[in-house]
Design a protein that fits this description.
Strand content: under 5%
Radius of gyration: 20 Å
Helix content: over 70%
Shape: elongated
Largest sheet: none
C-alpha cells in the first residue's frame, strides 16, 4: 500500500511539473508570438514533452490559454490588492486599483494575452472568473464607502459593474491602440473623473 501511494504521489508530482512547464512555455510563446502563431509542437518540444501531455493536461490549445490567463489573472489580482491596501483611504484605494489596472495594459504580456488574444479566443473578459472575483471586491468596497458617507447612496451592484466595466473598457482601448502609451493617461484620467461622480460631494 505504501509503495502504491508513493508511486501515485510521484505521478502526481510529475503531472504537476509537466503542467507547470507547459504553462510557462505557453505564456512565453503567447506573449511573444501571439496565440494564433504559437506552434504547439514547438512549444511542447521546447520543454521535452509531447502533444499528448498537452492534451492530457489541457485538452487543447484553448484550454492551455485558459490556464495561462488564470495564472496571469491571479498575479494581477495580487498586485492590485497590494496597491489597494497601501492607499491611505478606502476611496483612494479604489481609484488607485482601477488606474493601475488600466496602466497594466501597456505591459507587453498583459496587453497581448489578457487584452488582445484572450478576449478574441475566450470571449468577453467581463465574464471571466477573475473579473467576477474583482467585481465582488469592488461591490464590497463601494458598500463600505456608502456606509462611511463617502459615496452617494446607490445600487452597489450597478455601481460596481459600471466602474469595473469602465476600467476594463479603458484597458482594452489602451491595449488596442497603435500607440498605447499615447492614450494611457487620457484613459486613466477619464476613469478617475467618472469614478469621482460617485462621491457625495462631487460637483
Amino acid at each position: 500500500m505504501e509503495l502504491r501511494n508513493l508511486a501515485k504521489g510521484k505521478r502526481a508530482e510529475a503531472m504537476a511539473a509537466n503542467r507547470a512547464k507547459l504553462i510557462s512555455a505557453a505564456r512565453e510563446a503567447f506573449a511573444t508570438q501571439g496565440y494564433a502563431a504559437a506552434s504547439m509542437d514547438e512549444l511542447t518540444a521546447s520543454v521535452g514533452l509531447t502533444r499528448g501531455a498537452l492534451y492530457h493536461n489541457f485538452e487543447d490549445k484553448k484550454g492551455l490559454l485558459w490556464a495561462v490567463v488564470e495564472q496571469i489573472d491571479r498575479e494581477m489580482a495580487e498586485r492590485l490588492r497590494s496597491i489597494r491596501e497601501q492607499a491611505p483611504t478606502l476611496w483612494q484605494g479604489l481609484l488607485a486599483e482601477g488606474s493601475a489596472y488600466i496602466e497594466m495594459a501597456v505591459e507587453p504580456e498583459i496587453q497581448r494575452i489578457m487584452l488582445l488574444d484572450g478576449p478574441a479566443v475566450l470571449g468577453d473578459p467581463s465574464k471571466w472568473p477573475g473579473e467576477n472575483a474583482c467585481l465582488e471586491i469592488t461591490i464590497r468596497t463601494i458598500r463600505s464607502l456608502i456606509e462611511e458617507g463617502v459615496v452617494k447612496p446607490i445600487d452597489v451592484e450597478a455601481a460596481g459593474r459600471l466602474l469595473n466595466g469602465a476600467a476594463l473598457s479603458a484597458a482594452l482601448w489602451v491595449a488596442a491602440a497603435d500607440d498605447p502609451s499615447s492614450v494611457l493617461n487620457k484613459a486613466a484620467d477619464a476613469f478617475r473623473e467618472l469614478a469621482s461622480g460617485l462621491l457625495r460631494n462631487a460637483v
